[in-house]
């Protein structure tokens, strides 16, 4: 199964890893956003992730963040899809990232008061919520000339903050399964790309990144 970031993010084919957790969100071919995605793929292929996340010259920041947010949703979707059989109500009765961090779900509309739920339930809520935002043309316009809303950046930040929690859960609770499936290289590359991107545009508060702070520092130091 090939991820959107072509040659860098490519999952091992096989019945287990081809399970996609949620339908893949496609960027329409021929659109400007599709061209931006192709640019992202080409720079990722060079292996320089710091350079790959930078805003291409003359491009709109909102559009660049939108394209990459869709791409990260697809990547995390696929990564989590490979370990869903190990992430169950029994194995993960709470949504956590190690013993010190537990997440309760609220979306502000359907569920206003945060609820405690299992990791698979939480991640299902989270990915469904993200997909609804990405499918909303008023938030993520796909047509050329349609402006992004004034609250776009705050919506994008919330999406990325929540997607980070899926990485945090996978690393803390399921890394042994990831290693058994020999997918740690894919997970690490995807996460490193994600972290460099959110750092480049200051999209996630440092406190939110605390569950994986050591790993983030390690990934960053390797790249200096």
UniProtKB/TrEMBL annotation:
SMART domains: Mob1_phocein. InterPro entries: MOB_kinase_act_fam, MOB_kinase_act_sf. GO terms for molecular function: kinase activity. This is MOB1A kinase. Zn(2+) binds at residues 87, 92, 169, 174. PANTHER family: MPS ONE BINDER KINASE ACTIVATOR-LIKE MOB. The keyword Zinc applies. Keywords: Kinase, Metal-binding, Transferase, Zinc. The gene is Mob1a. The keyword rRNA processing does not apply.
């Amino acid at each position: 199964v090939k991820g959107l970031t072509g040659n860098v993010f490519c999952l091992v084919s096989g019945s287990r890893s081809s399970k996609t957790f949620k339908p893949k969100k496609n960027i329409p071919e021929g659109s400007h956003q599709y061209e931006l995605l192709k640019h992202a793929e080409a720079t990722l292929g060079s292996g320089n992730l710091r350079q790959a996340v930078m805003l291409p010259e003359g491009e709109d920041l909102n559009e660049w963040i939108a394209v990459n947010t869709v791409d990260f949703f697809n990547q995390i979707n696929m990564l989590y899809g490979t370990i869903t059989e190990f992430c169950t109500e029994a194995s993960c009765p709470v949504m956590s990232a190690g013993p010190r961090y537990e997440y309760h779900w609220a979306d502000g509309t359907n569920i206003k008061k945060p609820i405690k739920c299992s990791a698979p339930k939480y991640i299902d809520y989270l990915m469904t919520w993200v997909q609804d935002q990405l499918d909303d043309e008023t938030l993520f316009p796909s047509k050329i000339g349609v402006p992004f809303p004034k609250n776009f950046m705050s919506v994008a930040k919330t999406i990325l903050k929540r997607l980070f929690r899926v990485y945090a859960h996978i690393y803390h609770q399921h890394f042994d399964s990831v290693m058994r499936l020999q997918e740690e290289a894919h997970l690490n590359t995807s996460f490193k790309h994600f972290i460099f991107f959110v750092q480049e545009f200051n999209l996630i508060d440092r406190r939110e990144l605390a569950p994986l702070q050591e790993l983030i520092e390690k990934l960053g130091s390797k790249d200096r």
